[in-house]
Design brief:
2 copies of one chain form a homodimer. By secondary structure, chain A is of the alpha/beta class. Chain A folds into 3 domains: 46 residues, lambda repressor-like DNA-binding domains (434 Repressor (Amino-terminal Domain), Orthogonal Bundle), CATH 1.10.260.40; 129 residues, Rossmann fold; 164 residues, Rossmann fold (3-Layer(aba) Sandwich), CATH 3.40.50. The first copy, chain A, contains 12 helices and 13 strands. In chain A, helix 5 links the parallel strand 1 and strand 2. The first copy, chain A, starts with 7 loop residues before the first helix and ends with a strand. Chain A binds a DNA duplex through helix 2 and helix 4.
Chain lengths: 374, 374
Amino acid sequence: MTQRRVTIKQVAAEAGVSITTVSHVLNDVLGKRVHPDTRARVKDAAVRLGYAPNVLAQSLRTQRSNTIGLVGDEIATTPFAGKMILGAQDVALSRDAVVFVVSTGYQREVEHREIEELLRRQVDGILYAAMYHREVELPPQLASVPTVLINASCTAPGVPWVVPDEVAGGQDAAEVLLAAGHRRLAFINDVDEIPAMFGREEGFRRRAAQAGLGADDLQIVTAETDPGGGYTAARRLLQGDQRPTAIFCFNDRLAMGVYRAATELGLRIPQDLSVVGFDNQEFVADGIFPGLTTIELPHYDMGVWAAEQLFDRIEAEPQATKPAPTARLRGPVIYRDSVAPPPWVQDPGERREPSDRRANAGSDGAAPTIHMNK
Amino acid sequence: MTQRRVTIKQVAAEAGVSITTVSHVLNDVLGKRVHPDTRARVKDAAVRLGYAPNVLAQSLRTQRSNTIGLVGDEIATTPFAGKMILGAQDVALSRDAVVFVVSTGYQREVEHREIEELLRRQVDGILYAAMYHREVELPPQLASVPTVLINASCTAPGVPWVVPDEVAGGQDAAEVLLAAGHRRLAFINDVDEIPAMFGREEGFRRRAAQAGLGADDLQIVTAETDPGGGYTAARRLLQGDQRPTAIFCFNDRLAMGVYRAATELGLRIPQDLSVVGFDNQEFVADGIFPGLTTIELPHYDMGVWAAEQLFDRIEAEPQATKPAPTARLRGPVIYRDSVAPPPWVQDPGERREPSDRRANAGSDGAAPTIHMNK
DNA sequence: ATCAGTTGCCCAATCGTTTTGCTGCGACAA
DNA sequence: TTGTCGCAGCAAAACGATTGGGCAACTGAT
C-alpha cells in the first residue's frame, strides 16, 4: 500500500548527476561550488519527482532528529493539555520539528517506558508537562537529554521550567475587585497545599493590604475545588454577619457553586455580589450566567516558552552550561460580566467593563508580563 | 549535552561477538542458531550497557517506523481531542509505536505542510481526526499512505472511518425520558446541518414514534449550540401553551441555557422539568446543579478503534484490498440528576436513577454497542 | 608547452541497524 | 583420507541521506 517515496538517488539519476551534488544543491551547502545550470537541473528534477528527503536517514547521519517529545501526566481530561501541546507544536513546526505526545496517567512505570521509547527514537529533547502547577521530581532518564518543564518546577539544577505567576494572578484578582470599589472581599482557596494555593493567596492578600484593607475586610476560606465546594463555602460566607460584596474563587468550577449559592440566597450577580474566577475554562466561564470574569492560565504561552528554551538548549554548545532560566508567566484577566461596583456605590450608568472584552489586568497595564530570572 | 547512547557495536565488543550475532539474539531471529552460552553473554552485555536500539536506524533498514501521525483540526480548544489522542496512543504503545500529534487549525495550507512533514518522517500511517462529527474531503497526499478517519466520514473508497452513532444517541435520549414517564418532549437541535443534527433528531423521533407519541407530543426547535441559544429556545418552549415536561438538548452547553431559563421561570429541575444533554463535557455536566444526565460521545473508543484499524492496514499485505470497515460507536448514557418522572406521576420515593451512576442506556442494556459493516 | 590555481563534480565513508549469504570447524560415514 | 553435514558465527551489503577529500578539466600566466 505505502507507495515508496522518491529518494535522492532517483533525483540524481533524473538530473544526471551524483547524489552528492543533489545533496549539495538542495541543502545550499556553502563552500561547495556547483554550476548554475546543474543547480537548476537538480532543483527541477527534484520538484518534478516530488522529492522530499527521508528525515530518518537525515537524522541518522546528522545525529539530529528534529523531534521532541512531550510527556504529560494527563493529556485527556483537561482542555489545558491541548493548549500546551499547541504552543509547543507551533514553535516546533517553525523549526521544522515535530512533537511526539505521550501521556503517562500519573503512573511512574508507564512514564518510564514511554520516556525510554522516546529516547530510543532519538528525540532531541523533552518537554515534561504537568497538568496542574506543582513541583515534580524528574525521572533520572532525563538527565542525559535536554529537558524543560512546563507548568512545573523542580529542584534539579540546570533544568529550565516555566509556571504561571500565581502571585500576580492573586494580585490581579484583587485589583479587579478593588478597582470596582469593593472593600469587603473573600477568597475561596483550594484546600490542597499546592503552589497555586499559596501563590494566589499571597498575591491576593498583598494587593488587599496595599489598598489598606484590614484583617476584617478579608475572609479567606478553603474548599474542594469543585462546584460543590464552592457552593458550601459560599453559603457560609454569604450568610455570615460580615457578608463580603465580592468573592474571588480559586477556580472557575468553584465559582459555579458560588453562583448557585448566590441564586439560592436571592443575591444577584453582579449587582449584589461580584465574582472572579481562575482558569478561564471557556465552557464554564463563558457558559454560566452572567459570564464569569476570570484569570486565564497561560498554558499556550508556557508551551511556547518551554519549547523555545528547549530548542535553544539543543542548539547550544554542549560545554556551554549556562544557568537554567526559569519563568513565571502572568495570564490575562478575562473580563466578562460578574464584576460590578458593590451595592452601595452602584450607578447603573457606570458599569466598569464591557462584556466579553479581553484585556489585561490591573494598573500595571501592558501585555501579559513576563518575569524571569536571567 | 546529549550523551551518546550505547550502540550495537559496543554491545558486540563487550560480548566479544559480531554485531550480527548481537542482532540475532536480541531479535530472536528464527532459523538462526546461536549457542546458548553466547546468547547469554550477549544478553548480559546488553543489559549491562543499558543498550536500546536506535529506532531511526532500525526504521531506515526495515522500512517501518512504528510511528503514526494524528492530524487534528483543532487540538487545543476541546477536551475531546485529548481523549481521541489517548485512545490512539494507548493502542500505539501496545504495539511499540508512538504518535506524532499535529493540529491544523482548519487551515488547508497548514494541514498540507504538516502532513508532508509527517510523510517525510516515514510515518506508517495517519489518523485524520475531526473535532466534531462531519464529512470531510481527504487531502490527496494521504492517498499513498494508510489512513483512518476519526469522528469523520468520507466518500473516498478504501478509507475506514469511525463516527459516533448519532441515531442511537437520539434514541437513547428519548428512551431515558420515556422510561421516566414523560409524554410531552422537546428537542433543541443544532441549527447547523451536520450529521449529528440529522442523526440525533432521527433517533429521537423514531423512538418517540415507537412509543406512540404523536406530532403534538414532540416539539423540535433549533438553536445556536451555546448557553445563549439554549436559554432563548427554552424560554420559548416553556412559555408556550404546550409546555413539554422534558427537554433533550443537542449538547451540554445548550443545556446550561435551559437550566437558566427554567430557574427564571420558577421551574425546578428535575421535579418540574427533566433535561437530557449530549457530550458529557465533565466540567459542564457534572458542574451544573443538579448534575446533568447526558450522553457521552465515544471519543476514546473511536481513537482506539481507528488506531487498531490503522495498524491492521499497515500490517496487511499490500495486495489484499479488503473493503474499508466503518463503524458507528454508541456512547453510554451518563445518569445524573436532571431526569425525574413528570410532575403528574411524581412520587418522591421512587426516583428512577441514583445520582452519578454510570450505566448504559435504555432497554437494550449491555455495553456500548458497536455497529459496523463487514 | 608547462604549471599553478580554480572550477565543477564525484567517491567513499559514515550514521546504527537488519539480513543474506558464506566460512571454518568438528563429527561422522565412507 | 576424503567428503558431507550441521552448527556457530561473521563479513558485507543494504536502508537514504551528509560530508571530507579528491580528481579531472579548464583557465591564464609564464
